């Protein structure tokens, strides 16, 4: 039994589709489902007939908003696939998906090459160590060029691109590819369900041999075994080349590049073959690491090991609450009791579902390597670890970015206030990147998220799913404060005597700026106190107090970042000193020190890429300058001008409407967060 289950894991591929918005991710996913026989008609984004973009807002807007999981079978392999959003406002959905994936397909537009959000998701995949293959899509478009797209991958993403295909024809004449590994041609005739395998066309023979040689040389430089064969035989056999490409993909030392046109259903079958050949199975990735009682542990992908699963998505549906799980080790069956390590309570598995976007098929069990949804969990949240009750383990949860845009929301009718609170709580449960709080000054309910579109989608979801009429205030951005010039030797003595045991704490702190590449910095604390004048447990209390003081800065009540605090001296009292006293002293000491520092207010800034007709460039540049934008460069791609600029996020509200009016609807733009920059004094 165990041998059969382990063998089955070798045929599982858990992968995501990553790309910039409009690069064709969802179309690639739909064609994969069609090619594998999972669906029997081709879903189209523009028709609103796709499987993965099933939400009404996704179909109305024509973009992917929520990560959707689907499963299919190809060549004896089970492929669990997640179609991720490409818009920057939904990067947190991508982050949670990447946390549980073993591999990914990065999709690039053959005309635009590497775009801002494709670069961002590539960096996210780098952080998680997710192996990737690249698919250059839309080769049938005017201006499409595989070599230019590959050059942008090399220059902007810095991997070693290993191109394994040569296009046959260009633009409207794109009909197939030459497989450089097998040295054969794959040609898709109009209306054909599968490609015809043919010899390499004579007019492409020399170019195919040249590119095969370049591929062999590139692989030999990176792979020791391939290098040895190349030195001996001055060439690489197809089996050696395949093994080397698989090893380089899984180690991250190279990225296999394929090409095609998903819309025309050309290039999908070779892409699936590459997924099976090059991307890892759950057995090929390192054992998952977690901790228990401060001790780090590993759990291998073994169905008979103690359970270790990560909840990465929660979705409230009309039929119940779905919790999406990635099983790293162990097995779950219907009716099992599991331990939620985060909530520290037991949960019962009601049903186990194999997910097909918004459709589900019930299964009796799930094993290590599976991605499934379960029904019955009451308190489990995204990022929670589910484990065996007798073998507890906590896995590292996906990181959640700080929100940068805020709106005030209120029910249009006072009688709906409680219903709105319930709807907001459900929103936050489903999407941890949304934050709901009450403004202490205005008593308004405030919703914060990753961008204007993110909040717009969230509010619209409340209106549609809960039938609530909601009033929304103008968006505002989240500012930060930072230290420009610090202070040294700031002294604070906390003395309190009100009967009984008193409180005494004496601390001396230095405060100095601390910056990183984003301009936001963060917070660092250290102690240089010697001689035991402040015991270690009190040092930790001082640090906790300093962190308490970061919530509100002296320049405007914004969170404080970009500083280092050094505890240089202090003293204690034999009876009256305590951790609480030193925590209070740390908070007041830093608050006083910040008032003595030179402070600056920071605002979030984004890199904007604007694509417009060449005759509209002048107006766009003037508008960006009026929005305090700094233009970084411009270039012409396929007859359109592409302008890159850094703009304060606060100046981008309503920019989409303004850009459309200036360009008669022909202009588009994307934005990518780049950090924080000093805000003007008159803000």
UniProtKB/TrEMBL annotation:
GO CC terms: cytoplasm
Keywords attached to this entry: Cytoplasm, Elongation factor, GTP-binding, Nucleotide-binding, Protein biosynthesis
Alphabetical list of Pfam families matching this protein: EFG_C, EFG_III, EFG_IV, GTP_EFTU, GTP_EFTU_D2
Chain positions recorded as GTP binding sites: 19-26, 83-87, 137-140
Compartments in which it is found: Cytoplasm
Protein name stated in the entry: Elongation factor G
GO biological process, one term: ribosome disassembly
NCBIfam families, per database record: EF-G (TIGR00484), PRK12740.1-5 (NF009381), small_GTP (TIGR00231)
Transmembrane segments: none
Annotated function: Catalyzes the GTP-dependent ribosomal translocation step during translation elongation. During this step, the ribosome changes from the pre-translocational (PRE) to the post-translocational (POST) state as the newly formed A-site-bound peptidyl-tRNA and P-site-bound deacylated tRNA move to the P and E sites, respectively. Catalyzes the coordinated movement of the two tRNA molecules, the mRNA and conformational changes in the ribosome.
Domain Tr-type G: 10-283
GO molecular function, one term: GTP binding
Gene (UniProt): fusA
InterPro entries: EFG_II, EFG_III, EFG_III/V, EFG_IV, EFG_V, EFG_V-like, EFTu-like_2, G_TR_CS
Organism, scientific name: Streptomyces cadmiisoli
HAMAP family: EF_G_EF_2_B (MF_00054_B)
Family, as annotated: Belongs to the TRAFAC class translation factor GTPase superfamily. Classic translation factor GTPase family. EF-G/EF-2 subfamily.
